[in-house]
Amino acid sequence: MVKGMRMWISESLVPWTRQQRSPDNGIFPLVLDKINVIRDRRYVACGEIESLMNYFAVSKGDTDVCVVYDGTLSGLNGSLWAPYFPLPTLQSHLRIVEPGTYMADNDVGECFHDWILDARVRKWCGIDLTSILRSETRVWERWERCAMGLRPSPYVSFRGVLWLKEESHGDPSDPENVFRWERVELNLPGHEDCAPHKSWVSKRRSDGSLAADSISFVDDIRPTGPTEADARQASQVMAKQAAWCGIQDATRKQRDVSQTPDAWAGYVVHTADGDVSTMVEQTKWVKAKAKLQWVSNQLESGSGVEYKPLESIRGFLVYVAQAYPPMIPYLRGFHGTLDSRRPNRTKDGFDGTFER
Questions:
Q1: Among the residues of the chain, which ranges form H helices?
Q2: Cα 117 from chain centroid?
Q3: Among the listed residues 170, 175, 166, 168, the one whose alpha carbon sits nearest the alpha carbon of residue 206
Q4: How far is C-alpha 114 from the geometric centre of its chain's CA atoms?
Q5: Which of 90, 236, 246, 310 has the lowest tally of Cβ within 10 angstroms?
Q6: What averages of pLDDT result for each successive group of 10 residues across the chain (356 residues)?
C-alpha cells in the first residue's frame, strides 16, 4: 500500500459518526455528479473507518458546485498540523519577466486529489454516502487522496507542485535545457547601472538574456521565456514532466504563449510595447471601486462602518494594491481606523496590550 506524504497528528482523535444530511433538491444532481467522479476515480474507497467528515456544496455559478469535505466539524483538522508556507505574490512574478518576455499558462488538474493521503489518517476521513446514493443500507467510504477541506491538503499539494517545478527545471548548466542559466544578476537601487524596468534579481543565460523560468500559485503554473519558442518549450517540458510523475496536466486550461496573457492568480501582467505593466482582473477592479464607494456612502450618511466589514474591505484592498503600489499610502487610513478600535488605546498610542 502506498503510504502517502506523512502528516503530523498533534493530539488523539475522537470518532465522529453523525449521519450526513442530503443536499437540497436544487443542487442534489450536481453534488451527486461530484460524488460519482471521486468514486469512479477511486479517490474514495472502502476500508477501515473510525470517523466521518461532513461535506457540503459551494456554488460555482449557476451550473456547477464545489464539494468541500469539512474536517473541522469532526475535530479532525484540530488534531492535524501543517506548517506555515508562503505563497508567491505579484512581486514574485515580476522577478521572472522583463519587457518582451513571453508567458504561457499550465494548470494542475484536481490538484488536491493528485496526492496520496497519509495511510494513518485515512480511517479518520470517512464520508457517509447513504443519503446521496439513496441507499437502503449504510454506505461509508474513506478518502485515499487529499481532500478539499482537510487541513494539510494545501501544504501537501503546494509542496508537490514545487517539487514538480524542481524536477522540470533540471540541470541549469545543461546547454540543451530550456531552463538553463549561467549567473544571477543583481539590479539593485543605488547601482550606477540600475535599470528600473528590470527586476532586482534575475537569472541570466550566457548571452545575457533572461532565463526561462516558471512560477506556481498552487495549481496555476506560469512558464516564461525570453522568446516565444522558449516559453512554449518551457510549457511543454512542465506538462510532460507532470504526466511522467502521475500529476494531472489540465490541457483544456492551457493557453498559448503571449506577451499579453490573461490573469494569473488574479493579476494581469503584460510585457508588450517595451514595458512591464500590472493590473487586476476587471471584475476585481469593479469590486474594489464598489467597496470604496460603499465606505464613502456610509461615512457621508453618518452611520459609520462596522469593524468586520471594514477589516474585510482592507484585506481586499491590500490584495489590489499589489498591482497598484500608489494605493498603499492611502491604506494607512484603514489601518489606523481599525487599530483605533482596539482596547487599551490611549490618546498617545497603545499601552503595550494588543488584544482585540
A1: 28-40, 76-79, 90-94, 153-169, 228-244, 282-301, 307-321, 331-339
A2: 19
A3: 175
A4: 15
A5: 246
A6: 77 85 87 93 93 90 86 90 90 92 93 91 93 92 93 92 93 95 93 85 93 93 95 94 89 88 92 92 93 92 86 93 92 86 64 50
In CATH, what number does 8-86+116-151 get? Answer: 3.10.10.10
Q: Residue 223, Cβ neighbours under 10 Å: how many?
A: 30
Task: Quickly count helices (H) and strands (E) in the chain.
Answer: 8, 17
149 close to 67: Cβ distance less than 8 angstroms: no
- Which amino acid appears at position 320 of this protein? V
Interhelix angle for 331-339 vs 307-321, to 10°? 150
Angstrom CA distances, 5 to 44, 64, 160, 242, 298, stand at: 17, 31, 10, 18, 50
Sheet of 220-225: strands edge to edge?
213-217, 220-225, 102-107, 255-258
With a CB cutoff of 8 Å and minimum separation 6, the contacts of 340 are: none
- What does the domain layout of the chain look like in residue ranges? 8-86+116-151, 90-111+154-276, 282-350
What pTM was computed for the model?
Answer: 0.84
Torsion angle of the four alpha carbons 180, 173, 186, 193, in this order, in degrees rounded to the nearest 10: -80
Kindly report the CATH class assigned to 90-111+154-276: alpha beta
274: left (phi over 0), alpha (psi -120 to 50) or beta: left
Distance CA 120, CA 140 (A): 18
